[in-house]
């Protein structure tokens, strides 16, 4: 089995896709938040790698082809933005206020928790950009002396967790506005959470997509200030 996995170029891609589809099937069948397709696919993939005693580089050599699809997939976020342009223009102030306040609250929570748990400055800045997209977050972390690999893990975990509990939290706080839903999800859990917003509706998806971009800009600027507070 190990020899086959090491010699196969496309098996890692096939394995990742099959595990994701299996997770999506389970989610649709049972409709339980914890049955997140991405969480299931990551867990099963790690399990296979460990059981077969594979090097991660072996898996990555085949799975890298999936990474090539990230760029066009990201560009696709612009489609709901374009379709909902009128709605976005009519609620610009509310959307920007929500994103900015959400980003500041996120960084404030990291600051308070870092102080409470006695984290070092390096650990603090590593977690500071946890709620923005990976590419920007890793850059901020590295620039401020953090560990980009840990930042990437924190960002992914944040996104998966946000995707899992988004509907529950929105129901709990009785948030019914599509715009408010999009702002909350996109600001708190970036692209992974945005997939959940798009399932809810086009307006939610469009606002969430915009929130990813604005939250990234706000965090880049805010990190310069928050980075000096600890």
Structure in words:
The chain is an all-alpha fold and 230 residues long. It has two domains: 2-68; 78-226, no CATH class. Helix content is 81%, strand content 0%. The radius of gyration is 19 Å and the shape is globular. The N and C termini lie far apart (49 Å). The mean pLDDT is 91.
Report helical residue fraction: over 70%
**Whole-number tally of structural domains:** 2
Proportion of β residues? Answer: under 5%
The major pleated sheet works out as: none
Cα-atom radius of gyration? 19 Å
Report the mean per-residue pLDDT as an integer. 91
**Poorly predicted runs of 5 or more residues:** none
Return the string of H and E elements.
HHHHHHHHHHHHH
Total DSSP helices: 13
- Strands, count: 0
Structural class: mainly alpha
Shape descriptor: globular
What would the keywords be for this entry?
230 residues, globular, 2 domains
Brief write-up:
This protein is mostly helical and 230 residues long. It is 81% helix and 0% strand.
Structural topology:
Elements: H1 2-7, H2 11-30, H3 37-51, H4 56-67, H5 70-75, H6 78-83, H7 85-90, H8 92-116, H9 121-127, H10 134-143, H11 148-172, H12 178-200, H13 202-226
Helix pairs in contact: 2-3, 2-4, 8-12, 8-13, 10-11, 11-12, 12-13
């Amino acid at each position: 089995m190990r020899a086959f996995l090491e010699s196969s170029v496309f098996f890692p891609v096939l394995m990742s896709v099959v595990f994701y589809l299996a997770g999506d099937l389970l989610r649709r069948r049972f409709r339980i938040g914890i049955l997140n397709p991405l969480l299931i696919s990551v867990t099963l993939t790690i399990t296979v790698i460990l059981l077969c005693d594979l090097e991660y580089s072996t898996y990555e050599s085949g799975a890298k082809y999936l990474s090539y699809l990230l760029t066009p997939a990201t560009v696709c976020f612009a489609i709901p933005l374009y379709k909902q342009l009128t709605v976005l223009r009519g609620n610009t102030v509310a959307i920007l206020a929500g994103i900015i306040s959400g980003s500041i609250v996120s960084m404030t929570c990291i600051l308070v928790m870092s102080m409470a748990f006695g984290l070092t400055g390096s650990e603090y800045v590593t977690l500071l950009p946890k709620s923005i997209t990976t590419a920007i977050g890793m850059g901020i972390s590295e620039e401020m002396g953090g560990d980009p690999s840990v930042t990437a893990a924190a960002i992914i975990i944040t996104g998966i967790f946000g995707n899992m509990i988004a509907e529950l939290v929105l129901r709990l706080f009785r948030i019914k506005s599509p715009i408010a839903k999009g702002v909350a999800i996109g600001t708190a859990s970036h692209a992974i959470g945005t997939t959940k917003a798009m399932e809810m509706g086009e307006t939610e998806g469009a606002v969430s997509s915009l929130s990813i971009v604005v939250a990234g800009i706000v965090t880049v600027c805010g990190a310069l200030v928050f980075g000096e507070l600890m």
